Amino acid sequence: MYEYVEHTSDVKIRAKGKSFAEALESLMQGLIDLMKSGNTAQSNKEKETLLELNTSHINDLVIMSLEKILVISEIENIIPKKAKILEEEHENPYYVKFALFGSEGEFNETLIKAVTYHQLKVEKEEDGWLLEVIVDI
Questions:
Q1: Cβ neighbours of residue 66 under 8 Å, at least 6 residues apart?
Q2: Between β-strands 10-17 and 46-55, what pairing exists: parallel, antiparallel or unpaired?
Q3: Is the dihedral of CA 82, 88, 122, 15 positive or negative?
Q4: Contacts of 50 (CB under 8 A, 6+ apart)
Q5: Residue ranges for the chain with pLDDT beneath 70
Q6: What is the pTM of this model?
Q7: Under CATH, what is the fold of the domain 2-136?
């Protein structure tokens, strides 16, 4: 589950999950849905891209995962629809492998400029994980 939280000139995405993987996947979906808002470009040619990331800090894993979605969308002209985490490790070294599903095509407009570390939250809670990130639009 994710939700958008009001924030001046940016959008904050808050995601929760029972596991780190579930929270990260929800956060990815929040970014993907935000990317698609206001865009009507569509294609019937489906595409799947596998992505892997390694890092020494969990905060970097969260930011880099979202950045990777933005970059792949721009470079490979993919309009993402969904991300699915296939493997993850949330202890040092941090690792995630995920599939990005979408269709070939270009966005009508670029809505998201960057994913930021500003007010980033990656917290283990009693009942799961909380992730918050601000994206510059």
A1: 27, 28, 31, 115, 133, 135
A2: unpaired
A3: positive
A4: 86, 97, 98, 99, 100
A5: 7-8, 38-43, 107-110
A6: 0.89
A7: Archease, Possible Chaperone; Chain: A; domain 1 (3.55.10)
